[in-house]
Design brief:
InterPro entries: HD/PDEase_dom, HD_GYP_dom. The protein contains 21 helices and 2 strands. The protein has 401 residues and is an all-alpha fold. The chain has 2 domains: 208 residues, Orthogonal Bundle (Hypothetical protein af1432); 171 residues, Hypothetical protein af1432. Bound molecules: fe (ii) ion (FE2) (4 copies).
Amino acid sequence: MKFDLNNFLLAVSFALDYVERDIFGVPLNHGKRVAYTSLMIGRQLGMAEDDLADLVSLAVLHDNGLSEYIANKRPQKKVKLENIKAHCTIGERNVKNYPFLRNERDVILYHHEKIDGSGLFHLRGAKIPFKSQIIGFADYIDIRFAANKMYGAYNDKVREIVNTLKNRKFHASICDAFLREITKTRYRLDQEPENIEEAIRRYTPEKFLDLDYKEIRGMSMIFSKIIDAKSKFTSRHSKGLSEKAGMMAAFYKYGEEETIKLHIAADLHDLGKLLISNDILEAERKLTDDEFAKIQSHTYYTRVSLSKISGFKEITEWAANHHEKLNGKGYPYGLTAKDLDFNSRLLGCLDIYQALTEERPYRSGMGHCEVMPILYNMANEGFIDKVIVADIDKVFGSTDK
Ligand SMILES: [Fe+2]
Ligand SMILES: [Fe+2]
Ligand SMILES: [Fe+2]
Ligand SMILES: [Fe+2]
């Protein structure tokens, strides 16, 4: 299948940027702004198109290791991200299976190195991959300065500071390319929240790779980890759902492609949850109307982002319909039986099953025998598919004993 890597990445990358904002208070769209500045520096330096396309991917993903790191250990807001080595090593490991156009190694690992050896791994000068140097510089700029103020006297101040770092912390050619960039009005306008995604698309070379769904799954799993890491109560939710979807696919004797597509849909089904604050997701009480209304938006945003990806038509349906119900009482569209295909129904049932087996702030996780009566009850009341519920009982009842 012809697949546009950066199209996929931009569609789902808000996930990364929301995590960074929630944990470290970095203004939203950090990853995208770093990608934009990196891309513009790369263009100024005359980089080849394939390199530019990879540079954008790597820049968008540069802090992807963060959510896994915080899942294990919640840091204080005071901790500076650039002091946490683990987000570099985890981030590098996560992208190992990412289908880059070139052989990109260690770019994310070394994105906080400085040419004078003062970075986390004490690499110096040309030992630091050049793309790491560009991304590291763009990262520094985004954290230190406000893109929307880059004109007039503010620009003079930025220029002065960058010049003191030139040749000391950052490569001179990167600093000079950046200083040429900020003289342009579009530099700040392109980075406004409403323009940034479109701007990156405009300047990123279109690169279609011939990928199969297996390779695409390598990418969806990175995001599945990020989604699960959002809250300790859901730390295995997408992964667990994806495993169960795989078992049901085997039971139904699905072919390889349909099975992998179902896995991808399960990996990404709760992508929209990244937009909801943990205060709501982890509330130990009944939610208010306002809070529940916010929760209901998550599948809407799952649909908004996945529907931008070419080749994801069915995956979008299966992923985004998981809270719809056969009797029309679900959300966000209130679809009914005639609109819900088999895999949408399947993921809907499995999502309830998976959630009930997990611990929540207000109850502990349930076993198969406690979950099934709830599912049968919902099926009898017309919410979910009776036949699928019975199949789930067959498949997981035998493994649970
Ligand atoms: Fe970083
Ligand atoms: Fe960063
Ligand atoms: Fe959900
Ligand atoms: Fe879910």
